[in-house]
Amino acid sequence: MMSQEPLTSLAAEYKSGSPILLEKIKLLNEQYAAIRRTRGDGNCFFRSFMFAYLEHILESQDRAEVDRIKTNVEECRKTLLSLGYVEFTFEDFFTLFLEQLEGVLSGNEDSISHDELVQRSRDQSISDYVVMFFRFIASGEIKKRSEFYEPFIQGLTNTSVQQFCKSSVEPMGEESDHVHITALSDALGVPIRVVYLDRSHGDKGSSVSVNHHDFTPVACDLTNATSASGSEAVKPFVTLLYRPGHYDILYPK
Amino acid sequence: MAEDKYNRNNPAVKRILQEVKEMQSNPSDDFMSLPLEENLFEWQFAIRGPRDSEFEGGIYHGRIQLPADYPFKPPSFMLLTPNGRFETQTKICLSISNHHPEHWQPSWSVRTALVALIAFMPTSPNGALGSLDYTKEERRALAIKSRETAPTYGSSERQNLINEVCDQASELPTDKNEAEGGATEAISQPAENDTINEEPNETSSTENNVAQASQSVPAVPETVHQQQQLHVPQTGVVHKPADDRLFTWAAFGLTIAIVVLLLKKFLKANGYDVVFMNES
Q1: What residues in A contact B107, CB-CB < 8 Å?
Q2: Alpha-carbon span B197 to B76, nearest angstrom
Q3: Which site from A44, A96, A126, B216 is most exposed, i.e. has the minimal number of CB atoms within 10 Å?
């Protein structure tokens, strides 16, 4: 996990790159202020998500959100148990994530600062555990709703749901795809925006535009529809930049 | 001193302690395993030869090493008791996955790996390095022999542990029916169709460069069918007593034949052939 960099660093990287990319970076510049790069070790989606989520909690001190996600985490624990996972094989990962969650809330004896959060995200023994926690969560969700995920997985790798989880979700270092993101977002109830930076033209006719996709958790829609905040889709507070093969964190203006 | 080593803030240590606890609270009839007191990452184990196989009745000792970043990386196994299926004191690499043998998963445990190791014994080695392809008779003989004494290996602390494991293992029920429940128990992996691969072992020398076909068997013991015993060329590393005897007889026979022929030729050249042949 690197330090935050202004978005201009992205432009510098593609200085002599394709005009489409440069055009897109210019567009990104209008909406986003900064980028935080993550290590490209196959865990970048999960690691980016970890940092972006914890950082959001640290800055917003949104206790309601923490309580909400804890309920989801407990659900996920039950899911794994009902799928036949042995508790001691995953509980350390759960405990560690919940500790991080407590840590970013102020007023606890083990509260941490932003700098410490950055430090922790670089500490393999913490960072890898949280990544693995997310992998368990995603795997459990995919298996639980296997009939929903099956066609996507078939289209992606032509393997069974079980096999996919075993070879592409649970092992560390396996890159994430739409399926992983959807599963994690659904299971934790956290919306995720992914902004795509590639050489394709955007959706909007002849002019270049930057595509993004919001992964909106299914359950989230229902609960929010009744609340006062309105029926409009929840605004994702986790925004990731996707360049083919890699995810980084984006900071909106 | 031991307390220093048991750094409970180390996530690997925390996990291993959990596994020790779990092993002790759910003992299995098929195996037992304990870490060294001085080093949690070093274990000793004993497994029982799978029922209805030539290993039945055997008790096989071995060593497990857990990597510092366990459970992210798999444990490694080594057998110490001669068994005719795996070479002794050679790492057996068991990792779990169909297509990506390097994919060990943190949701597996020492227990799962031991169950897999037992399930592996009656399968054909298919030339995997560190594997042996002894005949059933030889394996049966080794199984009987395996019950006699515990192997001698390593430090005195390890030896004590081996003896302890051995005592406990020999107390395990030997009656077939009594132990029947053990086969279905101990399946702690989440997915029914998980498989374990036996991989070629990178520590072996290149001379042993036989077909590295890694094979996979379902980790659930009941679904392991004994594969056809294929003939696997083992490049002279394996000495089979039966083969040796055959070669000795063949060499002996050939020598006699040559001596007779030479004698005959010698006699003929010296005109003594009349003794044997009456014409001329």
Answers
A1: 85-86, 89-90, 136, 170
A2: 13
A3: B216
